[in-house]
Amino acid sequence: MTEMPAIATTTTSATSSRGALDVLCAEPLLRAPLVDRLETDGHPVRLHDGDGAPDGSWEPASGLAVVVFPPSTIDAVRHGWMSFVKHMVDHLSLVLVACAGTVSDSLLSGAGRSQGLVVLDRDALDEDWATAISASVTRAASGVTEIAPTIATARSVATGLDALTPNERTILRLISEGLSNAAIAQVQFVGERTVESHIRRIYAKLELPDTPTVQRRVLATLLYLGEQRPQPIAE
Fold first, then answer.
1. Burial class, 146, CB count within 10 angstroms (exposed 0-12 / middle 13-18 / buried 19+)
2. What is the dihedral of CA 53, 59, 60, 65, to 10 degrees?
3. What is the pLDDT of residues 64-77, one digit of tens each?
4. Are 30 and 39 in contact (CB under 8 A)?
5. Which CATH superfamily groups domain 16-155?
6. Which of 98, 125, 137, 205 shows its CA 20 to 30 Å from the CA of 25?
7. What is the rounded CA–CA span in Å between residue 6 and residue 146?
8. pTM (global) more than 0.85
């Protein structure tokens, strides 16, 4: 299946008074069936064309959006999806499709506000996944907050940034400020090998694999900065 170009609003429905439904899907092959299902169900669609999250100049078409994360936590961090959604969840009604490992407590900190938030576990969706997402749009538009049971259960066990100890978070902050291991050791009044041990544990908790193609220090920094300083979007 080929990647679709951006789609203009062509359908009228009860949601048209609020503008088009923004669809932001990190996986090109999922875009066409998802848009087809949404339009069939009467949702006017504006498709974001691109695998990465929109930058700070992106403006929503309405107060409602569907976001499909990439399956990899690394890609969700590398391409800006986590920081983008963390900010957007406070501004829009949102249907988020993600794996449990990419949904942190901090990401869901806006739950319970007036906007709707429906989070679906992509690993638990069956072959009728597009219909499930479309049905969730209606619930989110009505202000419902609903987290998939599999994700809610996973959140009861700390993972990712939530699993870091205070000292590990301090070290990650120092990494994000550009300090070398030697400089961090001086700040922490410990040996450099101790800092290296802490950093290895940080990488393990963030599930960043030790491979030549992955710059774990960079991705850990992006993940930390994405939580602390989410990129702005226009309201």
1. middle
2. 10
3. 999 999 888 778 87
4. no
5. Response regulator (3.40.50.2300)
6. 205
7. 29
8. no
